Amino acid sequence: MNTAVLDRPRSFWPALTRDPLMFTGLALLVALVGLAMLAPLITWHDPATLAPRMRLKPVSLEYLLGTDSLGRDLFSRVLYGGRLSITLAALVSVISVCAGLLLGLLAGYFRRLDAVVMRIIDGIMAIPGLLLAIAMVALGGATIPTMVTAIAIPEIPRVARLVRSVVLSVREEPYVEASLGMGTPTWRVLWRHVLPSTINPLVVQATFICASAILIEAVLGFLGLGFPPEIPSLGSIISEGRAFFQRAPWIVLFPGVFLALLILSVNLFGDALRDRLDPRMARQRKG
Amino acid sequence: MLNLIFKRVLAAIPVMLVVATVVFLLLRLAPGDPARVIAGDMASEQAVAEVRAEMGLDRPLPTQYLLAMGALLKGDLGSSIISKDPVATLIGQRLGPTMALAICAILLTICAAIPLGVFSAWWHKGLFDRITLALTVLAFSVPAFVVGYLLILVFSVKLNWLPVQGYAELASGFGTFLYHMALPTITLATVFVALITRITRGSMLEVLGEDFVRTARAKGVPERYVLYRHALRNAAVPIVTVIGLALTTLISGVVVTETIFNIPGVGRLIVDAVLARDYPVVQGTILFFSFVYVFINLAIDLLYVVLDPRIRY
User: Fold this and answer.
1) How far is CA B251 from the centre of its chain?
2) What ipTM, to 2 d.p.?
3) Do A29 and A266 contact (CB within 8 A), yes or no?
4) Does B135 contact chain A (CB < 8 Å)?
């Protein structure tokens, strides 16, 4: 591995202009997130207002993406749905990264806890995340806290394993041993030396958790387990459009395309970020 | 070999115990009261209490836990609240279509992804490699249900070549079976083809840089043999590992695919059970899928020894 390249201080903006994939990903992401967050300002139809006479209308100037089976404006429904997905994904990322970080630090640093924590984590990893989320949402109802918890729990083990592996390698470093030898308290060693090494891989992992959270929320909505019908979510719009698929395929296609572009932009950005921030995982690219 | 199998099976027991405990705790500690949900919004306090007693939810949590684990040891996954059938029987009835779908998807993945990955690595940074990589990123990003509906739109609605929904057993003829299975298989396999192509490519790139590959080429071994005999054989272990680890994604994909195409499998069973609030079926099915995951990964651990004689436990 060429360490000279890896150790060079990296500044963000020049990298962005040199890496077309990262640029595309980020530009697409900013555009989609901007559209979704500004939904109340951009759209001129309320996403929940029914207009029975305007059912299943195709694309027009008045209805940019057409209307659904109850005459609601698909453009505003998709944007509002996107806003919900993005908010949820951000919450899930923050929560699962924090919880995984804590567990990973505990398991990696305190050897006695390691066996216990890792066995629990192996157990959670064996449970299909989507099924667990389905069951928890069915029990707890489709509220934001339940939804976020249900989607975050299956993501925690991956973060914890990642942090643990970083901690295990850092704690053997001479400077950490020296610091401990000089009598620095454990929490301070963790804060000053161990935590900073976990940040880069965690930022990368967080983008992938975002992508996966957006997907799982959409799947829950698609299976009919998402939020109640008055709250538009990308998955539930698609699910409602299924019955009219042959007559009005746009009800399924437009939210589907929005969803795919959203996940694609997060993935592209995450891939590019990984190549820059996490040289261990980017090794394959150098081939 | 027998000793090895014994040791591995022994090591899987604690994982399964943790799985059962985690599923039990998460579903018991999740907000919401199953008894109230089952009894309905209009039910009186007494009716809710009756349901709670019937389900054993009025007992202390440790007692419930021990009872559930005891039943599990006897292979009892509980019984449906609605049909009163044992969950194991319900899963047994629905297993055929799910197995068929999963096996078709894995076969398609292996047939498509391994050659794609091998050739991408061989033409590293060439046009083929770049296009393949771009397509894998795309495939990762398009959710299975969007893929499914696009396929239905093109092949069923526009071209009228394949059925929109439905399932035919293998017993009704191989042609009929494939006719119904084609679109679900592609829907389910898309993400896997992308994943395994990437892993194969990465793993092959590493192996192709090794000395023994250069030696093989230098002594004039035909390139075909270099790729498949020397390189792929050595790249196989990470590929098989990822296939095993990705099984949870496959299981999630099965649930979605069975819903899109209306296939009467275990995936539909869990979705229907969730919609009908049939909690024992939900819990039993999750446990079943988790155990399948543990068992298949156990089998893969044992497979390593066959794939790579250098590995000894």
Assistant:
1) 3
2) 0.80
3) yes
4) no
Enter the pTM of the model: 0.83
Per-residue pLDDT of A109-133, as tens digits, reads 888 888 888 888 888 888 888 888 8
Residue B190: Cβ-neighbour burial (10 angstroms; 0-12, 13-18, 19+): buried
Of A81, A287, A101, nearest in space to A205 by CA? A101
What DSSP designation does A233 have? -
Model pLDDT, residue B104? 92
Question: Residue A87: helix, strand or coil by DSSP?
Answer: helix
Check CB contact of A139 with chain B, cutoff 8 Å.
yes
Q: Identify the CA nearest to A191 among candidates A112, A277, A109.
A: A109
From start to end of chain B, where are the E strands?
none
Distances B292 to A262, B23, B297 between C-alpha atoms, Å: 33, 15, 8
Paired strand residues for B79: B86
Minimum distance, in Å, between the CA of residue A51 and any CA atom of chain B: 26
Dihedral sign, CA of A98, A100, A101, A105? positive
CB B265, CB B103: distance < 8 Å: no
Give yes or no for a contact between A65 and A78, defined as CB atoms under 8 angstroms apart: yes
Residue type, B35: A
A153 and chain B in contact, CB less than 8 A = yes
* Banded model confidence at residue A210, pLDDT cuts 50, 70, 90: very high
Residue A206: strand, helix, or coil? helix
- Its CATH class, for the domain covering A73-286, is mainly alpha
Distance of CA A12 to the CA centre of its chain: 22
A222 contacts in chain B (CB < 8 Å): 145, 256, 259
Tell if the CB–CB gap between B252 and A130 is shorter than 8 Å: yes
Domain ranges of chain A: 73-286
